[in-house]
Fold these 2 entries.
Entry 1:
Amino acid sequence: MSTPANQAQYYARSKAYLAGEVIAPPQEQAPELQELLRYHEWRYYVQDDPVLSDFEYDTLYKQLEALEAADPGLVTPDSPTQRVGSDLTGDSVSVPHLVPMLSLGNSYNAADLEEFDKQVKRMLNMEEDSPLAYAVEPKYDGGTIVLVYENDQLIRAATRGNGVMGEEMTHNARVIRSIPLQAAFSKYGLHRVEVRGEVIIRKDRFEAMNAARAEAGETLFANPRNTATGGLRMKSPKEVADRNLEAFIYSFGYGVDQEGNDAVQALGTHTKALDVLTELGFKVPATGYERETAANITEAADFCTKWEARRNEYAYEIDGMVVKVDDLALQERAGYTSHHPRWAIAYKFAAKQATTTLENVEYQVGKIGTITPVAKTTPVSLAGVMISSVSLHNEDFIKDKDLRLGDKVLLERAGDVIPYIVKPLEDLRDGSEVPIEWPTVCPINTTEVPVPLIREAGEAAWRCPECVCGAQDLQRIIFHVSKAAMDIDGMGKRYVELFHAKGWLNTIADVYRLPYDWISVLEGFGNKSANNLEAAIEKAKQQPLWRLLYGLSIHHFGKKATQLVAQNIEHVLDLADWTEEQFTNIKDIGPTVAKNVTDWFANPANVALLRELEELGVNVKPTDEDRPAAEVTEGPFVGKAMLFTGSLQQLSRKEAQEKAKAAGARIVSAVSSKLDILVVGEKPGSKLKKATALGTVTVMTEAAFLEALTPGQGT
Ligand code: IVH
């Protein structure tokens, strides 16, 4: 993508734009900003190593947007502002691939790979013991994507389809930021190329997305693969963008020069081809980590088993490795069957699927009353974990799959992601299976009074609107004490359930008046743990206000919204008088949150709960953490970029940084030409050397730093 020299320049020019120092006509600024933003997209989405903050990136983006809005003639199709187009209307279009996209043969162990090696050598008329190098890389488990570039511009993207024809989805590919809209293929004489890759979502993003969807009562995605493949087919590019998809590119499919002659073979090896794609800005499995060039099949097999052992720790879902003859000329000589290339093979990891019987469905209730069905199955081992309970998400999930009690079902566990039911094995039904009846009244409720369930328009979840049995209170207490909300150290679900069973914990207020004397004599407790718990709860009373608001479990009133609201009040009970309009006046607070929060405060029992909490000493006012820090405009370090290195003697690193910030400094993470001051403690390492070499950085001892903060006290 870029040489180190122009990277420093990209950085410097970006900072100049951010500081408003660039004086040039829009005709010069717009193309430069486009180039800078392309660089930062690459740093962020391909390298995972941004050099600007999100805010700075957005600011640059807005500068470009403003220039382009003022003069539409400055807009180019590959401008970073042009990723999101309008929604698609009509059905998708089938397009032929430049070269048919075949499948891969499968192997499962080292012996299979050795057999493959022998076959390849036979095809190539090679001696069995002559050396043959292989490129090995992960087999990503997502959706295939085929990208066509012409004259260095992305002109088309398609799914794999049936291998010959794919579904055109250029609009959607354009919002995947790891896919460059332009790439300098011409540097390698490539005029028209097809590159192939896999669109995937990081496992942690997948889980976070599902957690947010569960919170909002929306349908959950079954697994990362479906999230990616489904994402490629969405009609609205905006929705695709929300899925945080990424594209790993794993090969050229085709590439010709201006005259139409092949220009890929000249690269020599698959390894070199991937190096070139990396250089051109694509996200490619990295050498030395995800991919390796093995000198022979034994080394290739070792790399495969190494990855099988670490697949769960990897950020993405992979279902195996792909082993490819490295030499491109030999690949051509080995050729293809109608089904797969003879020069490549998939090494498939142990299956993460199993079948078992669906015995029963139980229900759970969440903190806002969401009813979640859970399948109870005959215990079965799935990739080393015994499974007997699997979430069925909601009513639609059961209906769409037509699940019945007594069904044999196919289970799958994707990576470290929770197991799910892929489908019932309909062929194995004998007629004794019983359809699952969705309950009309709350199935958890233990009282005599039945509570009808409700399902709001646009939501997938059925909810119990009026809990009369206390089950929802229990879930709310569990959430209230959790890390996400009041973050009471050491107090988790287990304690809450235990204290609830003892009758000590029925409301959120009870958390703050637990009978520690009794707790200390519970089995497994003792004075020490009771004291620790008390200390943790006392500490939690001082949590910022947003955590208290978040810990109330008001439907849709999430972390972001509670933080915004906490900034705008003096006391939690101010909200009792707020109108919906006052909420929606806050930027980013929508009508649903406004309505839910006003409804909640309209209930006198809820207001009484907050009064009780205040009396128990729980903080009900905004703290420093709730209030965004005002920009420091005075102090010895205003506008300076600072960095600390080595071990400080008088202050902790954190204290020093806080003091520096209070005195106007910005703390940066690395030595660069933008660093103004380096404060060195004892045993400074490479940072000091680097800063000295730059010659532009002021180096300060800890004592000098303290002296600058409070003259006269530095030594
Ligand atoms: S090479 C001619 N390399 O696996 C086919 N495929 O059966 C050559 N896949 O859906 C394919 N990671 O999208 C290749 N590193 C990788 C891959 C990979 C995932 C997918 C591919 C296709 C299937 C091939």
Entry 2:
Amino acid sequence: MDKSFNYILSPEISEFRRFSPKLKIGVLASGKGTNFQELINLSEKGDLDIDIKVLITNKESAGCIKRAETAKIPHKIIRDKDFSQKELFELEIVNTLIRYEVELVVMAGWMKIVTPFFVDKFKNKMINIHPSLLPAYKGGSAVKDSILNGSKITGCSVHFVEKEVDSGSLIMQAALPIRDDDDIESLTRKIQILEHKILPHSISHAGFLIRSNFMGNY
Ligand code: GAR
């Protein structure tokens, strides 16, 4: 991991939980998919006991698709513009996740707001990564907003998905300083280094809760 900047992870990193059989996850992504790639890498190395059943993206040009193809992970492009209502779009996603018997849904750069309908279907079984120290800087331009606001510290958060956008109980956060010479690109790069650390560990933790049935059934 890059040590050229200071950071704090909380809770501290511990060993990944072991899952046998492997935890079945579905990944939702709209972009490049660097977080998705990290999950592929850890899974392929046998470090994280996950079985990535499916990648769902809403963008036919998203970089995550190529990563899925290379890793031989099934992928599905589900575009909101092909549906007359948002709930029909989400129903297609929900049905796909159910068809693949996904235990945990991981939003790794999913840039669509989810409706209560979707949240209810995967209550306590859906997590999201966001590039800020929530509850600061919710929404789709968190890195830019933190710079424009003159924040001195920012970071990233993984949380269970609740009906309110970028809310829900926090699983893990990472913090780092914003330097005077940081721009969106440099800060995003540093935040993503930390995201690649906290997302897998959050999956491990959420999977443990799900498998232990701590959070109730569907
Ligand atoms: C990540 O930085 C993630 O925090 C952000 O999208 C990026 C996806 O990067 N998510 C949000 O802004 C959600 N509101 P990736 O495609 O390289 O994993």
